[in-house]
């Protein structure tokens, strides 16, 4: 039964992450709300100062107007009436702006209405005084001053200004008190949420830390297991290499032994049979011509068998390899194999290599033999070139054809076309083996390099 494995994040980690995210989001929202409240409180401070400034402006304009009228009454110069004329237009705008500032405060709107009435009353006193002065002179002004109406109105205006400023200050104090209370609550809430978030982060860190160390332990265990596995694989590879080398040696020895037996025993028997057939054929040639002809056919078949035996012996263990050396064996094999297949061949072999180690000779010959067979069977080539050269570092062998080339997937499959056996022969001698496209991506190039011992 297949075991189901889950790769999702553990639920408790997700829960901690979501909790921390919610806390931090709530804290951010709370900080934003505090900033908005602070901005509102600052707006109210500015509002209070704007109201107080307007009240001061109104009071100052009325006082300047009153002073200018005194100058006019004392000098009779109309120029002293200019501040009063300016105040009349300016006060109207100040009252409108003040009304806008106080529109959300019914109590202050009522006070403003009273202030407006007092201003209108004071304005009437000013206008009446100007008219009396123009008509009766200082006598009219003296009579008006006895009544004292202007002083009482001015006192009421100052008193109302004080009341309105006091109410604005009280409202500002109340708002500040409310703001600071809310700020304390928000500070407490923010501190608490930050503490909780910090605890969650610490817990989250501990979980990650433990998970990291656990993962590190697993990785170390895997590394040790991989090292052990690599060591085991290396030992097994060395053992397999030794075994493979031994099997190749055994195979070559068995082939050599079989070739000798075929040559010595079967060869002598086939020779004796051929001689007997020749003798019998001569005796029957005149008496029994039909039997003589049949024996001649038998002898030809026997001779074909001898040729087959010779080819089998050469495939098992080329006699030329022991007698004439590697170069002559490669030349002879290529000549026979390409002649049968109808191919042309070119050899580029720089020397005879007579003193070469027998294991090297048989390995290079077998690689050449297998490669030429592959060219004949699969390449659809018209020419094959065999190069064997000595370099400063070792022997280099190349078999190059002009055929259709080898498929990429065949190169990656080591068992294809005897590639595994050729590669194994080169590797067992400490060399290298490669199969790649030929010149200009035409055909196939098989290369083997066997280094000299150091």
Automatic annotation (TrEMBL):
<keyword id="KW-1133">Transmembrane helix</keyword>
<dbReference type="InterPro" id="IPR050482">
    <property type="entry name" value="Sensor_HK_TwoCompSys"/>
</dbReference>
<keyword id="KW-0418">Kinase</keyword>
<dbReference type="Pfam" id="PF05227">
    <property type="entry name" value="CHASE3"/>
</dbReference>
<feature type="domain" description="Signal transduction histidine kinase subgroup 3 dimerisation and phosphoacceptor">
    <location>
        <begin position="254"/>
        <end position="319"/>
    </location>
</feature>
<dbReference type="InterPro" id="IPR003594">
    <property type="entry name" value="HATPase_dom"/>
</dbReference>
<dbReference type="InterPro" id="IPR036890">
    <property type="entry name" value="HATPase_C_sf"/>
</dbReference>
<dbReference type="Pfam" id="PF02518">
    <property type="entry name" value="HATPase_c"/>
</dbReference>
<keyword id="KW-0812">Transmembrane</keyword>
<feature type="transmembrane region" description="Helical">
    <location>
        <begin position="186"/>
        <end position="208"/>
    </location>
</feature>
<dbReference type="InterPro" id="IPR007891">
    <property type="entry name" value="CHASE3"/>
</dbReference>
<feature type="domain" description="Histidine kinase/HSP90-like ATPase">
    <location>
        <begin position="362"/>
        <end position="453"/>
    </location>
</feature>
<keyword id="KW-0472">Membrane</keyword>
<protein>
    <submittedName>
        <fullName>CHASE3 domain-containing protein</fullName>
    </submittedName>
</protein>
<feature type="domain" description="CHASE3">
    <location>
        <begin position="42"/>
        <end position="177"/>
    </location>
</feature>
<keyword id="KW-0808">Transferase</keyword>
<dbReference type="Pfam" id="PF07730">
    <property type="entry name" value="HisKA_3"/>
</dbReference>
<dbReference type="InterPro" id="IPR011712">
    <property type="entry name" value="Sig_transdc_His_kin_sub3_dim/P"/>
</dbReference>
<keyword id="KW-0902">Two-component regulatory system</keyword>
